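hey m, so remember when u said the tokens were messed up on ur end? i reran from scratch. heres the input so u can diff it against urs
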Amino acid sequence: MEPKQVEPRITSYLFSKASKLRIPLSGTFELSPVCNFSCRMCYVRKTKQEVENSPRKMLTKEQWLSVARQAKEEGMLYLLLTGGEPLLWPDFWELYEELIQMGLLVSINTNGSMIDEAAVERFKKYPPNRINITLYGGNDDTYYDLCQTRYVYERVDRAINMLQKAHIQVKLNGSLTPDNIHDLAEMVAYAERKGLIYEPVTYMFPPIRRDENLVGQNERFTPKEAAHHNGEAFRLRFGEEMFQKRMRSIIEGTVPPPGLDENCIDPMDGTVRCRAGKASFWITWDGLIGPCGMMTKPMLELNYESFKTTWEELVQVTNDIRLSGICTKCENQKLCHSCAAMALAETGSHEGIPTYLCEMVDEMKKYAKEHIHINVHNTTTYK
């Protein structure tokens, strides 16, 4: 089975052009850090009480709409609403519907547990570009182990069924950690039964936005485990023939690096380029704007009166970021792509060397050499 293409070619083309011209084609609005899940590896989650006690306040619906209108004037077409759990944000529906009526292509990141019949009806009336649901496990026990919440798996499954019946595009994301890796085969099979794209990742960013003291730390795999599970996840999703092709590609250094999503990859010429601060931006729940949601710097105070001014400043400070010369000259750079966000999260500096990534890529290469041409029946079993 060939990997499905998530992003249409026209979208890739638009991003390539926007990156060159520094047009903010894509934005992310992080409506709130509050979530009804408490995932162990989450990079941003805060409790409702923590938000209320914060000296910084959540943006209002009017502020978000003002920014959206101004960003659209500067070229924004794609908009992602995320959190936390965005559907918990008090004015979500009013904001969402007005954004759709602006003509923006709005996607939503959600855990899926808040989507009921009423939500589906509203989505049918104002269809999103896509709903991205993170699948955390194959049963309630795994959801509890990882997300520390009970009785949600069936709600998520029901939401997916209703959305598909309503012909709303759904994509499944996956964060693989020691707490849910045993459900990998079931999650892959679930996506197959539903006919949905499932994109799991085994690299978890250190949650420095949640706690600046967690540089280089998270409840995640060792680099060797992350590389191993990355390979096994690909094998389960695409079969032995594609797996063997991927192993050869890893040895040749020609596969996309681990830990990146579709917004990080510009496939126009097969290279990996970060769009952050060139064609995309991220606004936090409390009014800071940065190139990427995984970073704590650069972060600027949002100018509500002039998005244009803020964007131009963000482009400049992003352009000034420099990575370690060792990383940019590394022979594994095309496999690893030590981006600014990874370097900052792993080391506390954009110029730091993220050794976790170095080790993970070395282990990917070892894994590829060990598994190339191995008999199809000699595979890891996830139960």
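this time it looks ok to me. Residues 223-252 form the longest helix (30 residues). if urs says something different then somethings off w ur setup not the seq
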